[in-house]
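Field notebook, page 340. I keep forgetting to write these up properly, so this time I am using the form the group agreed on. The chain and the ligand, 2-acetamido-2-deoxy-beta-D-glucopyranose, are recorded exactly as supplied. Prediction of the bound pose follows.
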Amino acid sequence: MSSSRKFFTVFLFSTYLLILSAAQPDPKSCLTNEDGCWVRCLGFHDNSNSTYQTNLNRLFSSFTSNPGNNYGFYNASFGQTPDQVNAVALCRGDLISNPGVCLSCFNNATTELRKSCPDAKEAIVWNENCMFHYANRSIFGVLDSNSFYSWDGNKVTNVSAFNGVLSPLLESLRIKAAAGDSLLKFATGTAAVSALQIIYALVQCTPDLSQPQCNACLSDAIGQISDCCDGWQGVRIFGPSCNLRFEIYPFYNVTADGPAPAPPLSPPASNDTPSTSPGESENSPRIIIIIVVSVVGFLILIICSCICFFFWLTKSKKRRHRLNEIEVEALISLITLLVY
Ligand SMILES: *[C@@H]1O[C@H](CO)[C@@H](O)[C@H](O)[C@H]1NC(C)=O
Ligand SMILES: *[C@@H]1O[C@H](CO)[C@@H](O)[C@H](O)[C@H]1NC(C)=O
Ligand SMILES: *[C@@H]1O[C@H](CO)[C@@H](O)[C@H](O)[C@H]1NC(C)=O
Ligand SMILES: *[C@@H]1O[C@H](CO)[C@@H](O)[C@H](O)[C@H]1NC(C)=O
Ligand SMILES: *[C@@H]1O[C@H](CO)[C@@H](O)[C@H](O)[C@H]1NC(C)=O
Ligand SMILES: *[C@@H]1O[C@H](CO)[C@@H](O)[C@H](O)[C@H]1NC(C)=O
């Protein structure tokens, strides 16, 4: 029967979409619509008048004054188990010479968490300048290799040439950052793909990690690039314990970096001739992810409703055989149209 075969095809396709949507990156974009800001909420607590909420409020208000250590790292605990709130916050390593930026970033992050995750037991926010993580479990010195990704810009023209320069750059930065001390585990660097294209890269671990933990975290993150984002000009891999980012324009404070690299077979490139400027970076792929997830979710809802409707139709209208067939046919065409 052709209509049942069509129905089966639609069913398979919707299952496929369901799996696809489940495999999408887990963090959601921030409510502030701030560029490159992601938030993740885990667990659930009663936020009305619980001890946990009280401790959480103490944590959030502590950020209006406390900038952490002088290296942009902050760890704190409020309350007693089982209502203890533990927090770790990390400012991007090149911003620590300007503590006001870190403090402002932490404040923005806590505002975001209050709005996006009002009743989460554990939550984490990443934006371009800092990371803020709180949980009911101990998170200080704990390696968490869970990581997420985003990309921007365009695809590079010669992927093998780009990766041939990128890989050794990231490996050297990983070793440099992991060798950092208990205050700062951070490294930036540049490498030239051609006279016109320079890769700017940054890697950072939370400094509470040991050297082997930081190495492991960054190795995982670097390994993920080929799976998620091979060939993109700009990529961020971010997790609770470490993060990395590279772009073909300077997105961090390059003055602390030392001289720019000499590109192969050409005169030395100056720092201020990137192919794109930071403010004009393309972010549409990230927005597309969000749109795709929403649309897919909406479609699944529609498809489920249609399936229910289909069964209701076949059950309740057995007598009107001919009309029923036509209705089902029309319904399936509509679903197929919607899906595509
Ligand atoms: C909140 O809890 C405290 C102590 O547990 C209690 O005194 C207070 O009345 C509660 N407030 C509300 C609005 O439930
Ligand atoms: C924060 O980290 C330091 C180690 O750098 C540790 O001694 C201290 O106990 C931690 N504070 C809290 C509140 O966890
Ligand atoms: C904090 O948020 C404000 C307003 O959205 C923004 O202007 C500012 O740049 C943010 N600060 C940081 C460090 O991101
Ligand atoms: C943290 O909260 C989650 C969710 O409520 C709970 O399952 C877990 O046992 C808690 N962990 C600790 C260490 O209290
Ligand atoms: C890409 O770069 C490699 C060198 O890394 C070179 O051998 C190859 O010819 C280039 N391919 C193209 C299509 O330019
Ligand atoms: C960049 O880093 C240098 C050296 O650490 C510092 O003097 C300068 O203020 C920084 N610039 C910005 C914009 O943060």
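OBSERVATIONS:
- Residues 284-316 form the longest helix (33 residues).
- The two ends are 23 Å apart (CA to CA).
FOLLOW-UP: compare against the apo run.
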